C-alpha cells in the first residue's frame, strides 16, 4: 500500500503588485489565498453555490469570477452531493477543486460523497489516485442565523480516515492554511469560523508559515492551559487577558488541525501547568474535545493537578437566535472552568 499523499510546500505568494503586509479581514485573506492559488496553478478551480457572480453569501469569493472567468470560478446548482461528486471527478482528471459549502448545516447532503468517495479513493486505488480537493465550510454560531446555519460538524469528519480536517482562527492562518490546503494532495475539510470573517489583523503574504497540520501556542502562561480552535480562539485569548489582570497567566494553544491532531504542544504545556481546559462550540459528547481529554489523560496523567475540564456547546440541536448567547462558550464560562481547575 502506497504511503498517504504528503502536503506540498510550493505555496509562494504568487501575487503581483500587492503589498506583502496588509491589515485585512479573514474573509479578505481567504479571498487572497484563492486568488493567489488561481494565479499560480491553472488546475485550481473554485466552485460552489453563488461563489461567482454574487461572490459568495459572505463575499469571500468576491471578484474571483470576474478576474478568472466562469471556467475557473463556477456557480453550481444547489446540490452539495453534486458539488463534491463533481470535485471528485475533476480531481481524478488532475484538477485541484476548492469547493464552498455555503453554510455548515448544508454539508450533510454531500456527506456520502465525502465519506464514501473523497476519503476512500487514494486508498482504494493503492495510491495511484490522489484527491487534492478542499471543501471550505463556514461553521459555528454567533451570527443570528436560522436553523441549519450555525452547526459545528467538525467532529463527524475528524473521525473519517482519509480526509484531513483543519480550522483557522485569524486572517494570517486563514490565508496560509488555505494556500497549504489547496497544495495538499489529500482532501482537506477547511472549517472557517463565520462570525470571525470580518475581524481584522495583520497578514504578511511573504512570511514563512508553520506546517499545515500543526498546533500553535498563541499565549504563554504557567497557571493553566487552554486548548481550543476556530471561533473560540478569540474568546479564550480574551479570557486569558482578563485572567492576567488578576495575576493568573493562562497558556492558550490554537489546535488548528483537528485531524491529524498535533498534541505535542498541548502535552508539553500541560506537563508544565498541570491543568487543562478545552473549549469549542461543538457539543461535548463524542467530540474533538473528548479525544483530546482522553489523550492528555493517557500521556500526562502524572502531571495533572486537576481533571481535564471542557467548555463547549450543549448536547442539543443548535438553539434559536434568541438563545444562542446562552449556548455559545463565552469569556465567563471559560474563566469559570479555569477557576474550578485551579481550585483542585
From TrEMBL:
UniProt domain Transketolase-like pyrimidine-binding: residue ranges: 24-199
Keywords from the named record: Oxidoreductase, Thiamine pyrophosphate
Protein name: Alpha-ketoacid dehydrogenase subunit beta
Domain of life: Bacteria
UniProt xrefs under CDD domains: TPP_PYR_E1-PDHc-beta_like (cd07036)
Cofactor requirement: thiamine diphosphate
Cell membrane as UniProt keyword: no
Residues that span the membrane, as ranges: none
Lineage, opening ranks: Bacteria, Bacillati, Actinomycetota, Actinomycetes, Pseudonocardiales
